[in-house]
């Protein structure tokens, strides 16, 4: 599943800027984090990607390794970010096999469309555990290795929903608000030790798992979404990967503790974005009628179909 370089990285970066560096990426087999990792490896880094699905994680790792001759990419599947022992074992293996850890991306996340009225305590807790506790567990597992690096960099993947509040996303808004706060704590407490920690908050990114779960695939809805974004388009995985390269580079050496929205200013108009509903739905009508879009991807149905 070879991916053209133009898909995941702009041609502005100098070859080899990450030579000798090692990246540790949770959610690394996902549609966004895999492209971030791909860009880092293309520019000289080796990497270890973490995921729960063993087969998928190992396959994506092998594919990422093809972007640069001699690249080393480890795929560690069967790792649950909710379990500190899983992450510690993965971080230790990464450091042992690749020589250390310089860059960390905490990208494992869970999300789905649901109103508060239909959300169970278990559903809310699950997202908090994956997104918030998973990020906490990631930094705890990797910080001993990061402190041995000459250029320790940390990046958390967040959202913009909690900036304004978004219907049908109470669980993720709460979880990612905590992630943003945690990043500030890492920046303040480990900044004096050389660690830089920042946050990327992607907007709607085309052809990704996240968008397929949160936004209707109907052409009219996508057209409506694009029209509501000030730059007039959905984001691309390259937008997130390029921002990642910049934040891990020396060009961002004075950026620490910041949350950067990479969304074309979409969050400034979030009330106009058709998240979880069809393009003709209006607030608060869809809440009062319960008319959530029928075109959303439902991972629960997929799992049942496979059984």
From TrEMBL:
GO annotation, cellular component aspect: peroxisome
GO biological process, one term: fatty acid catabolic process
Keyword terms, alphabetized: NADP, Oxidoreductase
EC category: oxidoreductase
Reaction(s) catalysed (UniProt annotation): a (2E,4Z)-dienoyl-CoA + NADPH + H(+) = a 4,5-saturated-(3E)-enoyl-CoA + NADP(+); a (2E,4E)-dienoyl-CoA + NADPH + H(+) = a 4,5-saturated-(3E)-enoyl-CoA + NADP(+)
PANTHER family: PEROXISOMAL 2,4-DIENOYL-COA REDUCTASE (PTHR43296), PEROXISOMAL 2,4-DIENOYL-COA REDUCTASE [(3E)-ENOYL-COA-PRODUCING] (PTHR43296:SF2)
Protein name: 2,4-dienoyl-CoA reductase [(3E)-enoyl-CoA-producing]
């Amino acid at each position: 599943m070879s991916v053209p370089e133009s898909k995941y990285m702009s041609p502005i970066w100098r070859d080899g800027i990450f030579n000798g560096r090692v990246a540790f990426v949770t959610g690394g087999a996902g549609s966004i984090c895999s492209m971030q990792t791909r860009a880092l490896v293309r520019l000289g880094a080796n990497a270890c990607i973490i995921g729960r699905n063993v087969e998928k994680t190992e396959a994506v790792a092998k594919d990422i390794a093809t972007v640069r001759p001699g690249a080393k990419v480890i795929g560690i599947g069967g790792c649950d970010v909710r379990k500190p022992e899983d992450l510690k074992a993965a971080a230790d293996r990464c450091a042992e096999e690749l020589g250390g850890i310089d860059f960390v991306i905490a990208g494992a996340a869970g999300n789905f469309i649901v109103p508060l009225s239909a959300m169970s305590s278990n559903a809310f807790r699950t997202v908090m555990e994956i997104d918030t506790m998973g990020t906490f567990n990631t930094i705890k597992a990797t910080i001993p290795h990061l402190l041995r690096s000459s250029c320790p960099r940390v990046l958390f993947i967040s959202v913009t929903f909690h900036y304004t509040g978004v219907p049908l996303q109470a669980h993720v808004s709460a979880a990612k608000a905590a992630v943003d706060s945690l990043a500030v704590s890492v920046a303040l407490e480990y900044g004096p030790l050389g660690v830089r920690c920042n946050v990327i908050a992607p907007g709607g990114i085309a052809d990704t798992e996240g968008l397929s779960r949160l936004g209707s695939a109907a052409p009219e809805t996508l057209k409506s979404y694009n029209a509501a974004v000030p730059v007039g388009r959905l984001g691309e995985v390259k937008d997130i990967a390029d921002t990642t390269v910049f934040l891990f580079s020396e060009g961002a050496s004075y950026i620490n503790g910041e949350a950067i929205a990479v969304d074309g200013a979409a969050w400034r108009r979030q009330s106009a974005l058709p998240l979880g509903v069809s393009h003709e739905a209006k607030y608060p009508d869809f809440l009062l009628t319960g008319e959530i879009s029928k075109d959303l991807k439902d991972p629960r149905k997929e799992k049942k179909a496979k059984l």
